Amino acid sequence: MAPKPPHRTALIGLSSTATTSWASLAHLPGLLSPHGQTLLPITALLNSSVSAARAAITTYNLPPTTKAYGTPATLAADPSIDLVICNTRVDKHITTIIDSVRAGKDVFVEWPVASTLEDINVIVEAAGRSRSRVAVGLQRRWAPPVVKIREVLREGVGGRRLGRVLSADVRAFGGTKDREVLPEGLAYFAERRVGGNPIVIGFAHAFDWVLSVLGDLNPSTVHTKLQLQRPSTRIRDPQTNEITRETTSNVPDLLSLHGALLPSALTTASSTLSFLFRRGQPFPGTPALTFTINCEFGELRVTSFPGLSLETLPGEEPVKIEVHWFEDDKVEEVSWDDSEEEKNLPPVARSVWRTLRAFAEGKEEGDGWVGLKDAARRAEMIESFLVGWEKETKGA
Question: What are the residue boundaries of the Gfo/Idh/MocA-like oxidoreductase N-terminal domain, all occurrences included (predicted)?
Answer without folding.
Answer: 8-137
